[in-house]
Amino acid sequence: MVTQFGIKLAVHLITNHFGNLVAVILSLSRLSDLFCIGIDIEVLCVQKVCENLFSHGVLTLDQLVRYSELTKDQVKNSLLVLVQHNCCQAFVSAPEDDDDGADRLRVRTQYLVLFDNIIHRLRFPKFLETVSRKLDEECVELLDGLLRDGRLTLKQMVDRASQGKGKCFMMHLIENAVDTKVVREILSKLLTARLVERCPAPEPVVSTSFKETTTRKRGAKAAKIFEPPETLEQRVVEAAVPGDAIRFSFTADMKSKVDRETNSDDDEIASVQENDEKEEEILWRANFEEFIRHLRHKALIENIRTQHDDGTATVLSAVLEATKTVEKKVKMENSVPLSLDTITAEVMKTDTGRTMTIDRIRASLSQLGCSQRMIVDDAYSIDLKKIIERAQNEEVESIVLKRYGRDAYRMFRLLSKDGCFHDTDQIAASTLVEKKEAPKLLYRLWKDNYLYMEKVVATGVKQITILMWKVNKPLLWEHVLDEMYHAALNLSLRMAFEQEKDEELLNVPKDKLKEPGPLQKKYKRLLNVWLLLGSSLTKLDEALMLFHDF
Amino acid sequence: MSILQGKRKRQDLASALSASMTNEERVIYNIIRGKKEMGIWQGDIKRETNIPDSMLKKSIKLLISKTLIKEVVNIQNKSKKVLMAMEFEPSKEITGGEWYTEGRLDTGLIDALSDVCLKLITRKKVATRDAILEWTRTLGSEVFPGGVSSGQVEQILKVLVMENKIQEVNSTGFGDFSSVPAGEVCFRLAKKVGTNVKVGAMASIPCGVCPRITFCTPNGIISPTTCQYYQKWLDF
Q1: B158 in a structural domain
Q2: If pLDDT is split at 50, 70 and 90, which confidence band does A544 have?
């Protein structure tokens, strides 16, 4: 779900991080709803590309250059920056059935803007915190490098680590060169936790046609916009299965590993060297998917903790921890089924769960919505979607309460819970709202897109128009998400504005700021403003993830 | 036997009264009585009978003074008072139901009953519907002189759920639920005692409650850099 303000926020983030040039390229993607920027390597068939553009929303390099008023090189460089930072994915569109001979031979490289990855840039501090809690400081440093530079090879990571040390101790660089083995070890820790992955294929071949299915993972993502989500999700899952072995593997070439066993000793040494060289060339990047999965689990557990108790949260946490490697996608609707014995064993492993008895665990599972049928089958699966939906409802309801008051809150909750049409009088009677007030409040909610209304004309002795109200969740959720992107953009803009306004304070020596006076007062205010805006943005980002990524 | 006697008495009284009425009064009275508990507006009587305005008003006054009819406030339109024969009680459509007194929502009663229910649930941590009903029945006579029906208590519980003050849950039989058999539906407080109400991420920033958010653009007249709400929020 990419909304108008979502795009604006993404463009703002890119402008902030990389400057105007790249942002222009990105904002051009707004020209097409489909988020595709196309560069046709052969400019021969401009007409054909134009047709493509209209039907698929793809832009040629010429058009891109014309719209952006940049040179071809500038556009190319900007695209390279986007690719380096995983904000853009190149792909080659597969020849169509109706293409003639010349068309079939032509290579069509297109670029897909990865909206999610751009928004993830807001979450880098959260990703780093995750690693700091799960692993150690060395891993945090390595990941920090990956997040700052987008994609790195092992050699680049070693260089980075060496430079870092050189700076720390103010000594000569070579003396402090970090051993490749050390970095390799840190990287393998991150790989085992699946927090880092190999970069995807640079230019997979993808069919952009509506009906055909593709086998490449990125390709499936690229075609996501054309297909209903269900089939595409299946396609992504199918494509991801064979990739998993390579995605988190250190070995450069799987084939050479097999060969090594049969070859002679000399060959083995040679192939090891070759393999090491190849290994150093592999590009690595942070695995956003795993980070988002981790954050989703965290949100699920915290929601259950506030809704129920610590014991129930412990049970859910143990179940999620045990099944995380089996989860096929981030947005799992139900947890992977586990038997009571497995759950008990997992709960016992945790510090807080050691004291829990089987009966207590069973009670917690029933609080988590596990049905009688699951008890009979001894396969407990928790409805995770329900927990997320509840949290989404709470977020929207809290906006309604703050904006429209308690009476509107009651009416909104009634409609949201029932999910069907109710007439004005019925709503007023069920929620005990003054009959004259109810239509006014409902109208305000409707005007701001929080309610959906339909007029029904009843013809009897008199013709009466009855207003029927409903909460249309898919529509409303999109509206709320857009407002949230808008709010996040505003917070970010205000932060930049405050910084610009008090820029001179940043150049003042720190000693002067410590002296009491107007300068110190101003500085303290700026710190408070930053703290408030920053923490609000972090909190709002959690809500954004709740509606978009979870 | 006594019912028959009662009926005969009323009929005698009506016939005696009807003898003392003028023709207009009788016509008006019969129309009002015919409408039973729904009553009728004065304007509608005029349309039906074509009796001149002054005569109509005079007759109605007389009928009220003879306590044959009464004026009832109509919830749909408070200025349009409804006339009803004395022996009928106004219908729900006219009064608005048991939560309305004299055409107004009795917020005092609603608040008091909500308080009682909440107090019981807070004290017991978990309470079944029956326990709450029993409690209000015993306590009801002291706190609510008019008495409260079980329907009213049920509705208050529903409203409290809507307000997210209490939750309807199934008992697990453990911890707080130990007093209630497992599987039984019961009510408990939605928020743990001592914890603050969770405010959403959007609701805690100015944009979340801004009535002008649709007019706000980065470089527009309303923008985050010129926003008055932001100014107030960031005023340290």
Answers
A1: yes
A2: very high
Q: Is pLDDT larger for residue B171 or for residue A372? A: B171
Q: What is the 3-state secondary structure (H, E, C) of A2-53?
A: CCHHHHHHHHHHHHHHHCHHHHHHHHHHHHCCCCEEEEECCHHHHHHHHHHH
Same domain, B16 and B91: yes
CATH number at residue B117: 1.10.10.10
Task: Please answer yes or no on whether B162 and A435 come within 8 Å at the CB atom.
Answer: no
Based on its alpha-carbon atoms, the radius of gyration of chain A, rounded to whole angstroms, reads 28
Interface with chain A: mutation pick from B101, B174, B186, B235, highest number of A CBs within 10 Å: B174
CB contact under 8 A, A540 and B205: yes
A400-430 pLDDT, tens per residue? 999 999 999 999 999 999 989 999 988 998 8
d(CA A195, CA A142): 11
Say whether pLDDT at A51 is over 60: no
Q: Is A443 exposed, middle or buried (CB count within 10 Å of its CB: 0-12, 13-18, 19+)? A: middle
The owner of tokens 């307000």 is: B163
Domain that includes residue B221, residue range: 200-236
**Contact yes or no for A211/A97 (Cβ under 8 A):** no
Render pLDDT for A312-332 as a digit per residue (tens, 0 to 9): 999 999 999 998 888 878 888
Residues B48 and B111 in one domain: no
Task: Note the ipTM here.
Answer: 0.76
CB-based contact (8 Å) between B1 and chain A? no
Q: For residue range A278-296, what is the model confidence (pLDDT) as tens digits? A: 777 788 999 999 999 999 9
A339-378 pLDDT, tens per residue? 888 999 999 988 888 888 888 898 888 888 887 777 777 8
| Minimal CA separation from A294 to chain B, in Å | 20
The two beta strands, B69-72 and B82-85, are antiparallel
- Which chain B residues touch A371 with a CB distance below 8 Å? none
Q: What domain count does chain B have? A: 3
Out of B101, B116, B143, a domain closes at B101
Cβ separation B201–A542 shorter than 8 A: yes
Specify if B170 maps to a domain.
Answer: yes
Question: Are B65 and B122 contained in the same domain?
Answer: no
In a domain, B150, yes or no: yes
Final residue belonging to a domain, choices B101, B126, B158? B101
Chain B contact set for A394 (CB, 8 A): 198, 200
